[in-house]
Amino acid sequence: MKTDIEIAQSCKMLPIDTIAGSIDIDEKYIEQYGKYKAKIDLSYLKESERSNGKLVLVTAITPTPAGEGKTTTTIGLADGLKRIGKRVAVALREPSLGPVFGVKGGAAGGGYAQVVPMEDINLHFTGDFHAIGAANNLLAAMLDNHIHQGNALNIDVRRITWKRCVDMNDRQLRFITDGLGGKTNGMPREDGFDITVASEIMAVLCLAESVSDLKARLARIIVGYTYDGKPVTCGQLKAQGAMTALLKDAIKPNLVQTLEGTPAFVHGGPFANIAHGCNSVLATKMALKSADYAITEAGFGADLGAEKFLDIKCRLANLRPSAVVIVATIRALKMHGGLAKTELKDENLDALEKGLPNLLRHVSNIKDVYKLPSVVAVNRFPTDTDAEVALIIEKCKELGVNVVLSDVWAKGSEGAVELAEEVVRLCDKENDFSFSYDIEKPIKDKIKDIVRNVYRGSDVSFTGNALKQISELESLGFGNLPVCVAKTQYSFSDDPEKLGAPEGFTVTVKNVKVSAGAGFIVVLTGDILTMPGLPKVPAAENIDIDDNGIITGLF
After folding, report:
1. Annotated catalytic, 162?
2. FRET partner for 172 with CA separation of 20 to 30 A, picked from 317, 337, 373, 523?
3. Dihedral angle at the C-alpha atoms of 11, 16, 21, 25, nearest 10 degrees?
4. Is-catalytic flag, 367?
């Protein structure tokens, strides 16, 4: 059996101008990065006269170690729509180097549903993440330089919130002390690094809709507080102009292709916990402008990725989805039903029935909270039995939602025809899309609405520190922003051990802070790592390249 990278390397790619031409993007908008990658100039969005297509979100059940295949399904669905004669484009996030070299691997799909060139996309690609890191670290350097040069803004070095970043899993950099070595080498202080995808600049880039909007958002970023408790912004340090200059190319969406030649906009990659976990607004809007169907996905399960896509991205960018695909595997649902990963091969209807409430809750949220039509896509494994499939179909039909078997990993577009046809049917239906909370409510009430309406928890407990932070943020004028809840991805609750569809739980909010540039409130319910570490055996150990430039070991 071929590996993902072997499948990708055997693909005969089309020139990128041919891909752009297939969706009528004129060559004057194309900035080529070699033969098979390009950036698309933002003027395309202003000058194109095409009406927007239909927006389809691909999300998933609560993730487990058994895997769901959300990105693979997203790509396969796009290829499936193309196969049945539809004009389609896909919009995805860019992979971070941290997971590529760590344990998770890349994010370019798998099997016969991938975006290519897979090696480039999973490695440096077009340099967007490096530009984001450079802009982040320029701001850090200007902040520390301001303090060194006299600290005219009266910045409290104990209340600096801005960290440096690097796109690599490096736990050694989580907490550091810098500025050592005497007066000429800066002010000694505690510091630390985030991974680049956790930088607020990543979230800012992915929500900005123009260069001027990007610059304005960067200026609003809060880097710390003064000795009398007032926020200090990037704009006060006069860094936003130079930072925007560093990001002038990074803001332009990247165009590549799937294995089957479907256009793919791959751009941006914010954390799905500390940020909103979606590709850029600009990439989504280019997909909508250039195609009749724009297929996109959001990070983790629907309680995190879909909630933030719908409540934050769609709200801020004025996007309206037409349909939602919820990806599941029978293997993962049996894990939610209490089975260990080693016990998933045998038929077990009892475990499946116990795990099914997880899927049904996600389905109900999309249908009843957000008022959107949906379909369940089951990635079928050879060990799945007909009886197990029949049980899922029966339970979903009780909610008025169809189930489609997907086999895109093994068959590409051929394995997505039925799913594509169901998505087309759903997109033709009217919907009453709504949000899970009213943006004008106080911060505490918005958090409670998410916990009760989406997680289905019973209550929210706020620490004294969190209550103080909420009061400060509302007094500073940030009370009308959407909220971005950072919690474990492994449970509807804030306890990763509570699998399935737990009830009666209380979510504890420990800290609340503002991402003023991105335009949302970050609600921390646990200890969220913004700088991951490498595992005992990193994936990097298996990656190699030969004298002909052929890379092996990527997945």
Report:
1. no
2. 523
3. 140
4. no
